[in-house]
């Protein structure tokens, strides 16, 4: 099957930008315990985490014993397969399908992880698919946050519903839902202010946004996207735990994979929580967001042959 050009571009971008996190397996090495131990260290350094690293190594040892891993290339192939299998359950793309319109996406996460940028990129993506969109500036903390979303909206010619700084984000979500409904929008995307999962009152605010949306449509929000910065390492796992426990996360976006040596957090998250990873972010531009693909990611992380 022919893949669209944009998909192929994104896969090569992924390989190129994930290089800092990629494993280093020198060609010509004998596959022995020393090499497996080095690999274990690399997986841990890439933030794959103790549990997932153990699972991967266990399977590698079984393969080494049963079928023999003769050289660095067979080792690399085996690793790609093992990691692909581990990631496959979370490789579930977001489907914009709902009984009633609009399909509502709520983005949550801690400060500065890339929520607003991701939503801007998503707006471009949906727009190019011919969907009718609306954005809601639910980050009423700072005027600059509203402007940031408006800039993305203007670029894509997507309307942005906003209120003055300090307004109740739930009221913004309410207005935006009504506006999206009356204009026949397919998708409503709601941005929120960054918050620490330990800030109880702010977590309550997210619940209120959810309640207001659910009053209009019991199925809304159809997708609650937790955005995570790949560079935060194991802390991302705590964020998943807390946000999921409080607001119910249905999908993850892992951003900034371009700037980190810690891309392994994707594997740790997949293994621990099994929540679908919808998208990954590889940069600041609109085209730097792609659907998560288990095999593509495994190949990029295992890296090219260094021969
Ligand atoms: N390198 C890189 N930078 C990114 C990526 N995604 C977002 N950024 C940058 O990260 C910074 C923060 O992004 P925002 O989208 O403002 O993050 P946010 O989560 O909305 O932040 P708050 O609203 O303050 O909580 C910006 O400088 C973005 O350009 C990515 O995938 N790669
Ligand atoms: Mg923001």
Label this structure with key terms.
single chain, 307 residues, alpha/beta, Four Helix Bundle (Hemerythrin (Met), subunit A), Rossmann fold, 2 domains, elongated, binds guanosine-5'-triphosphate
Principal-axis shape equals elongated
Report the end-to-end length measured between terminal Cα atoms.
30 Å
Task: Please name the CATH architecture of the largest domain.
Answer: 3-Layer(aba) Sandwich
What is the CATH topology assignment of the largest domain?
A: Rossmann fold
Helicity range: 40-55%
Instruction: Give a short account of the largest sheet.
Output: 8 strands, mixed
Give average pLDDT, whole number: 92
Briefly note the structural class of the backbone: alpha/beta
List unreliable stretches of 5+ residues: none
| Chemical compounds bound to the protein | guanosine-5'-triphosphate, magnesium ion
Going by CATH, the homologous superfamily of the largest domain would be P-loop containing nucleotide triphosphate hydrolases
Number of strands: 8
What is the CATH top level name of the largest domain?
Alpha Beta
C-alpha Rg (nearest Å): 21 Å
Number of helices: 11
Number of domains: 2
**What strand order characterises the main sheet?**
3-2-4-1-5-6-7-8
Portion in beta strands: 5-15%
N-to-C order of helices and strands? HHHHEHEHEHEHEHEHEEH
